[in-house]
């Protein structure tokens, strides 16, 4: 089929357009499928700017324009009633070509899909004309405006991959054609004007710089891993933060990059290869199945947790306003609330798991969400457990003015970025383990007392159905009240008999 088409190409332009439509259709299919499931494989930009996409600029334009016109395209195709089962199975390519026929460039008769739609061009144009009358507008652009959501303009940030290039060299090379300045907070971040297009720049294509927002770049920097450390990145793909960790560690030490989704593992490996990082080990599996006491994690000193979230803080950056789920008239409903509740439950679970790794000294929990339920509420819910492991909240980037919502004591340690003021809405919480020998001794004493009490029968046991449930009260308020009463009795008895008093524990 392709061979026949090649014979009929009259110019390189036709050849380029033919392949661009098919690359765009693949990206469009992934985007629409992820949007329908509310579980995207990647953002529109990250899918387009993969190394496997050859004509990135043309593909990007074609996907974005098709998405902008998608409600109109669907209405036109429904009204024209030209699609049979065969073509409905190729709807992503049909959408792309229909956009070109009605709103884009001229379509030549190469490829079966192009021939089919060009044969029905009159029916498509008639359906469009009727749609304009039905919606009481004069032009197709008026139809597009009905669905338009204002876009957020923000500077173009690029992070220098110091595994391949130093910051000053990148500043000099990028500055030959653009106005560039260093960011005043993230040392390997450069700032360019909003309209700067670097997608085909050699420094981007060879992995010397990564197009990464400021808020996203602050996450790995907040963890601050040292060269030679072992680090666990719990939810790694697409990998920008993972390779940033490798750069901060100067390629020394070891990073275990964990990712569950098979397709995202492929994207992660592409990012690692592009970065040139050699100290990253990809673990295809569920982070929740990683045993904290396994010897393979015994030297992990820092853990980055950037779990699945609503993505509400980066909707404009990811071009989510182009997706069907964000079209005009789509309001938050019960389904959205249920999704947030499920996400928050998952986020609490993975954060509790992250805090349980014995050797870990630093944990960063981050989201690209603006919702309190995914951010402050999750952190607040794990604080008692974090304290029991010896963790406390610390303040990443103390000079940053925007902090957490004041919903619990210690909120000022949390960091937020604003989607309007800062271009992205991120949340960062940093847990650091207290360097306190007394705390370690208290934990050891607590564990010893728990074992002693269990041997003495101070553990409540009861049966529920066929399951035998064991409840240890050693860390509960009830236990502390019992312990205080018992110590008071011992002290009173010793006083009456002239004996000495020694506390059972140093709680």
UniProtKB/TrEMBL annotation:
InterPro entries: MeTrfase_RsmB-F_NOP2_cat (IPR049560), MeTrfase_RsmB-F_NOP2_dom (IPR001678), NSUN5_7_fdxn-like (IPR049561), NSUN5_RCM1_N (IPR048889), RCMT (IPR023267), SAM-dependent_MTases_sf (IPR029063). It comes from the Eukaryota. PROSITE patterns: SAM_MT_RSMB_NOP. GO terms for molecular function: RNA binding; RNA methyltransferase activity. It catalyses: a cytidine in 25S rRNA + S-adenosyl-L-methionine = a 5-methylcytidine in 25S rRNA + S-adenosyl-L-homocysteine + H(+). Residues 146-434 form the SAM-dependent MTase RsmB/NOP-type domain. The active site is at residue 368. Pfam families: Methyltr_RsmB-F, NSUN5_fdxn-like, NSUN5_N. CDD domains: AdoMet_MTases. The keyword ATP-binding does not apply. S-adenosyl-L-methionine binds at residues 235-241, 259, 286, 306. Keywords: Methyltransferase, RNA-binding, S-adenosyl-L-methionine, Transferase. GO terms for cellular component: nucleolus. The keyword Ribosomal protein does not apply. Gene3D superfamilies: Sun protein, domain 3, Vaccinia Virus protein VP39. SUPFAM superfamilies: S-adenosyl-L-methionine-dependent methyltransferases (SSF53335). GO terms for biological process: rRNA base methylation. Belongs to the class I-like SAM-binding methyltransferase superfamily. RsmB/NOP family. This is SAM-dependent MTase RsmB/NOP-type domain-containing protein. It comes from Lithocarpus litseifolius.
């Amino acid at each position: 089929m392709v061979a026949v088409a090649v014979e009929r190409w009259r110019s390189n332009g036709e050849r380029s357009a033919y392949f661009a439509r098919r690359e765009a259709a693949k990206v469009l299919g992934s985007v629409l499928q992820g949007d329908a499931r509310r579980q995207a494989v990647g953002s529109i930009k990250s899918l387009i700017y993969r190394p496997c996409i050859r004509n990135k600029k043309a593909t990007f334009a074609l996907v974005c324009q098709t998405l902008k016109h998608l409600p109109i395209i669907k209405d036109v195709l429904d009204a024209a009633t030209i699609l049979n089962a065969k073509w409905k199975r190729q709807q992503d390519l049909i959408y792309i070509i229909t956009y070109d026929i009605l709103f884009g460039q001229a379509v030549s008769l190469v490829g079966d899909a192009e021939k089919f739609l060009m044969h029905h061009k009159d029916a498509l144009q008639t359906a469009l004309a009727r749609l304009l009358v039905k919606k009481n507008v004069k032009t197709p652009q008026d139809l597009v405006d009905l669905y338009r959501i204002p876009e957020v303009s923000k500077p173009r940030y690029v992070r220098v991959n110091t595994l391949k290039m130093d910051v000053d060299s990148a500043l000099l090379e990028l500055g030959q054609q653009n106005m560039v300045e260093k960011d005043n907070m993230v040392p390997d971040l450069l700032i360019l004007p909003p309209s700067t297009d670097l997608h085909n720049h050699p420094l981007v294509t060879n992995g010397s710089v990564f197009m990464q927002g400021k808020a996203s770049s602050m996450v790995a920097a907040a963890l601050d891993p040292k060269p030679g450390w072992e680090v666990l990145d719990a939810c790694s793909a697409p990998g920008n933060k993972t390779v940033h960790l490798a750069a901060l560690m100067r390629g020394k030490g070891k990073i275990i990059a964990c990712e569950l989704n098979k397709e995202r593992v492929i994207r992660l490996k592409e990012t690692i290869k592009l970065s040139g990082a050699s100290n990253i080990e990809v673990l295809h599996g569920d982070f929740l199945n990683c045993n904290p006491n396994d010897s393979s994690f015994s030297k992990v000193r820092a853990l980055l947790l950037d779990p699945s979230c609503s993505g509400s803080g980066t909707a404009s950056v990811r071009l989510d306003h182009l997706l069907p789920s964000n079209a005009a008239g789509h309001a938050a409903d019960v389904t959205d609330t249920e999704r947030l509740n499920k996400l928050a439950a998952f986020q609490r679970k993975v954060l509790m798991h992250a805090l349980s790794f014995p050797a870990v000294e630093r944990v960063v929990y981050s989201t690209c969400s603006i919702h309190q339920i995914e951010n402050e509420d999750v952190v607040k819910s794990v604080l008692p457990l974090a304290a029991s492991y010896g963790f406390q909240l610390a303040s990443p980037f103390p000079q940053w003015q925007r902090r957490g919502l004041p919903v619990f004591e210690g909120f000022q340690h949390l960091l937020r970025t604003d989607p309007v003021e800062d271009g992205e809405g991120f949340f960062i919480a940093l847990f650091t383990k207290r360097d306190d020998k007394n705390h370690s001794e208290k934990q050891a004493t607590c564990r010893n007392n728990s074992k002693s009490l269990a041997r003495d029968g101070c553990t409540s046991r009861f049966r529920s159905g066929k399951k035998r449930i064991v409840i240890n009260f050693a860390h509960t308020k009830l236990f502390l009240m019992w312990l205080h009463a018992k110590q008071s009795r011992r002290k009173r008895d010793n006083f009456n008999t002239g004996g000495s008093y020694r506390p059972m524990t140093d709680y």
